[in-house]
Amino acid sequence: MTGHLSRRRFLRQASVSAAALPFLSGLPSVSGAALDPKPRRLIIVFSPNGTVPDAFWPKQPGPIEKLPPILEPLDPFKHRLMTAKGPSIVVGGVGSRHIQGMGCLLTGNQLFPGNAKGGGNSPSAGWAKSISIDQEVANFFQSKQNSKTAFGSLQFGVAVPDLADPRTRMSYAGANQPLTPISDPRWMVDKLYGKTKDKASLLAIIDDVKDDLARFSDQLSPEDREMLERHMEHVAEMQRQLEIADANDSRNHPVPDIDPDIELINDNTPQISRVQIDLMVNAMANNMARVATLQYMRSVGQARMKWLNVKEGHHKISHEPDENEDARTKLIKINTWFAGEIAYLATKLRDTPEPGGVGGSMLDNTLILWVNELGKGNSHTLNNIPFVLIGGENLGIKQGQALELGKTPHNRLLMAIAKAMGHELESFGIAKYCKGGAIELG
């Protein structure tokens, strides 16, 4: 191939399906952009309602010898993992601890007054006052030609209820601009590949794009052809997995979005989680986005995780006193399940070669940040927020370490995340809580 197919000429091809457009237009053969040999990526994963501190934090700072019970599923990545104990949400303002924790977690800023009423006498709160760190990094990547992607960032959800409330949103494009996580993989497929005319079958999307591949194969580089073929194989696998998930969904009647006493989630949530992770890794492998969030449930969520034999609502269990051994056991089981899903994500990234034949895996250039809105559920503390960093061998982060940083504003950790992505910030969120600059992670 002597030159790239110009974007304008590409868009003039009337026979190109809407499904093919977002992916094909980002290929180097079409866009003319040079392939970044080591693209930096950021994935932020959220799980709610605090953790069980003595089962989560390593026993002592320094090199990690043995992972605590909750983190055991991440043992294959023990030497590629860092825990950061100490960063705390100190920005204050309106809202209950749950609401503050959720809305301030990635923004490092306060919330506007609003209509969301939490527990206690705290004033009702609204949306966050500024951009979240994932969107700050995405905007930085989108500002440069060699890191610009079709979507910039993607917001995945797993069992996030359809409720526009600060307890359900952690990602913000700016002040008063929450971004909604997509919990239905079919909607994400529509976002990535375009909507089918009659919403019939995802296989119709696949057939359209296969036709486009054949039509443009002589204008794409061998690398791009291989990438697109792998891409479509993955979409076909998505269809199969969604069909399996549907078959395993035991609901015989519609489930309400929110039950006033208990929040119902589908029995197929574990399968949906894996589908979402697979779809995320594939989209990143194909350079459709370099930033993504994966949100499990919501703050104050009362999900009943029947696949773990936990029948009570998650939030209710998290409020039980420390002496309640049954609640403690179930909370450890719940948080260990979240760790297992993150281990699955890390495994997919580790087992996916970095595209472009440059060597190494996608995990080498990807940072996974696992976060929570509370340090501990029954105390509602915003101190010692659980932060776990995984991967990113090429991102200047010292791995296999348990950091103990003392109580420090978590704004400085958000700045460190941006720095790992090559984005140096003088402050983020409320400036006075950024004194001392980014936490040193190298």
Give the key terms:
442 residues, alpha/beta, Alkaline Phosphatase, subunit A, eight-stranded mixed β-sheet, two-stranded antiparallel ribbon, 13 helices, 15% strand, globular, disordered N terminus
CATH topology: Alkaline Phosphatase, subunit A
Mean pLDDT equals 84
CATH architecture: 3-Layer(aba) Sandwich
- SSE-based structural type: alpha/beta
Walk across the major sheet and give the strand order.
Answer: 2-12-3-11-10-1-9-6
Low-confidence stretches: 1-16, 196-201, 250-262
The first-level CATH class is given as Alpha Beta
Characterize the biggest β-sheet. Answer: 8 strands, mixed
Tell me the total number of β-strands. Answer: 12
CATH superfamily, please? Alkaline Phosphatase, subunit A
Distance between the termini: 42 Å
User: Rounded to an integer, what's the Rg over CA atoms?
Assistant: 22 Å
Indicate the proportion of strand residues.
5-15%
General form: globular
Percent helix, as a range, is 25-40%
Number of helices: 13
**Secondary-structure element series:** HHHEHEEHEEHEEEHHHHEHHEEEH
Number of domains: 1
